[in-house]
P-type Cu(+) transporter
Amino acid sequence: ATPAATMVGTTIGAGHGVLFKGGDVLERAKDVDTVVFDKTGTLTEGEMELTDVIAFDREGNPIPDGGTASRADSGEGDLAASDTDRLGENDVLRLAAIAERGSEHPLARAIVDGAEERGLDVSEPEAFENVPGHGVRATVAPDHLDGGSEVLVGNRKLLRDNGIDPAPAAEEMERLESEGKTAMLVARVPAGTNDGRLAGIVADADTVKPSAADAVAALRDRGVDVMMITGDNERTARAVAERVGIDPENVRAGVLPEDKSDAVEAIQADGRQAMMVGDGVNDAPALAVAYVGTAIGSGTDVAIEAADVTLMRDDPLDVVKAIRISDATLQKIK
Ligand code: ADP
Ligand code: MG
């Protein structure tokens, strides 16, 4: 494009909150044949809410939770009053919240907020470790549990890596995930033992952005392939994909933060020209390797830095707008 056309396109974009980082990206955007959306915070609001708490017995079966609601008001869980192998829902939630207190992850914030809303006393853990892409591990003081324990909150892999079999929770996990929720296992290892056991499940849900489905439809109308990439599990990812109109085979789930850019490179390996759209720190390397990297909305500075296009508003439809502005700019000067 001529410098004048570039300036017009850039100015029109800015008027719509679509910021192009230079004239070459303004030209490239029209040739995008694949759009790869990050899930959390990009297609969804990224504001998780605690939706479910399930307590398991020793065999990993859900147990009825008797009378925890009244005890919740005192800020105490129901553990002290019961057999330690039969935690109540509030015990499971409180343990999970203590373990997640030190995590910045939106999944963690929702668990802590949910516990506090139920009046549970979310104290500091003695030790805390973040296991990126998997969950958290924390040491919880003896006054909360018999002799204290190590608490794990996260996905199946986190438990397996710590020698705890997640299989007994499979049915409940799958049920929650097919509702589009992120279900996390809670396990504890009593201090001084290797006797790790499942304690329960907590689940968070996110809301799909109102315009996400319209954006996917508009891109597909244009002949653009739409894909989704996420660290979340396959079943949750597919449930969200279905809601926004992305084909199940176009979902790349369980992708670790450090593997997102490899996944985009793999998508581009056959000559595709992909626009990666993401919001998080996790997404920066993937934005950088994409043919066009697009940071959306309240995205982090790191994502904006790595991106070629920044969408100031938090609206997936602006992805379509960015491509159309590129079309229009280039057509005018032909
Ligand atoms: P996303 O790409 O959705 O941001 P992440 O790569 O951060 O996901 O995490 C992948 C998965 O690891 C999550 O879906 C969850 O199962 C688990 N996980 C990550 N962080 C936490 C945490 N703080 N607590 C519990 N589970 C977690
Ligand atoms: Mg994200």
Summary: The chain has a mean pLDDT of 89. The first strand starts at residue 18 and ends at 20. Residues 39-40, 100, 103, 105, 107-108, 133-136, 153-155, 182, 184, 230-232, 257, 282 surround adenosine-5'-diphosphate (ligand 1) (CB under 6 Å).
